[in-house]
């Protein structure tokens, strides 16, 4: 492994940085985008029960808001309950936009890694190939074994760049879809909550 890294030239190091960033972002997003942390089941029912019992006081509101993005959204809607439904829906949309930004955090970085990794790998290969062919003398004679070894080493960066880019694209698409699903769940729960508030 060390020999591969060394033979890949200095272009291998930015690719290593990309791989570390990729792993960090994937692990962080896998944890953060769990349904139980964003929109836990039963939270809407809990808020409704507290309101029915007239126990949805400031402390309970803060506790629910701190549990998840859904709790924060429900508490945000509840504090404007004395206004018209249209006004509350507007406020809910504003809050949902903030939550969406949180759910999409680091996804642009993931997309960037997926884009630049193969390009860095290709650049490393091109520079490596230039170095290899510059070793051919004017008469066109060269040691074929050395040329083969040099070309093999030059291709290492392309392979490494693709190894990084492929999972980056896969996880980017996965997290993008996961965000859409979670936002749909938040929207559905908010709609049910507003129906409950304005039927009281």
What structural keywords apply?
mainly alpha
Determine the N-to-C terminus distance: 67 Å
Supply the number of helical segments. Answer: 9
Characterize the main sheet: none
Strand elements, count: 0
In total, the number of domains comes to: 1
**Overall outline:** rod-shaped
Name the average pLDDT. 87
Classify the secondary structure makeup into a structural class: mainly alpha
Rg from Cα: 27 Å
Provide structural commentary.
With 200 residues, the chain is mostly helical. The chain has one domain (2-197). The chain has 9 helices and no strands. It has helices spanning 2-7, 12-32, 35-38, 43-52, 58-67, 69-78, 85-103, 107-134, 144-197. It is rod-shaped and about 90 Å long. The protein starts with a helix and ends with a helix.
């Amino acid at each position: 492994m060390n020999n591969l890294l060394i033979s890949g030239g200095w272009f291998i190091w930015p690719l290593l940085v990309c791989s570390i960033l990729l792993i960090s972002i994937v692990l962080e997003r896998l944890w953060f985008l769990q349904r139980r942390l964003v929109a836990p089941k039963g939270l809407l029912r809990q808020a409704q029960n507290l309101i029915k019992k007239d126990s949805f006081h400031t402390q309970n509101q803060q506790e629910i808001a701190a549990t998840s993005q859904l709790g924060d959204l429900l508490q945000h809607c509840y504090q404007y309950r004395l206004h018209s439904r249209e006004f509350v829906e507007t406020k809910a949309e504003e809050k949902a936009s903030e939550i969406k930004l949180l759910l999409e955090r680091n996804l642009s970085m993931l997309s960037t890694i997926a884009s630049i990794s193969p390009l860095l790998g290709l650049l490393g290969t091109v520079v490596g190939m230039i170095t290899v062919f510059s070793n051919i003398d004017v008469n066109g004679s060269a040691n074929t074994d050395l040329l083969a070894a040099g070309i093999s080493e030059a291709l290492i960066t392309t392979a490494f760049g693709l190894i990084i880019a492929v999972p980056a694209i896969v996880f980017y698409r996965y997290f993008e879809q996961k965000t859409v699903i979670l936002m749909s769940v938040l929207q559905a729960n908010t709609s049910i909550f507003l129906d409950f508030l304005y039927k009281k």
